[in-house]
Known about the structure:
By secondary structure, the chain is mostly helical.
Amino acid sequence: MTKAPLGNADAFIGVLAHLADTVDDRASGDPKDSYTAKLLSKGALHCGKKIAEEGAELALALAAQGKSESASEAADLIYHMLVGLRSRGVTLDDVAAALRKRQGVSGLDEKAARKS
């Protein structure tokens, strides 16, 4: 484990906002011309499978590859996550609200509460 902090959240938020706008802009595009539109045209199940695939690739990169590969796989996962959320009509506000509910709660406590 590294002791390095996660870094500049403001920069990340700006890039994430731009990516979310791009996904929204391309969602109504022609699936022949837009990978985003193509994924969305295949439905939420397909999007979920892509998220699982990208998550596995990130896990493998973290376990056995370097920093740049891990960052690249994380970027792929985040893109596919946004497309998947869009496929189900889950907004970033919905995700923010779910995260906000967990602020100040121990991860162990939050996980235990989900079991009941």
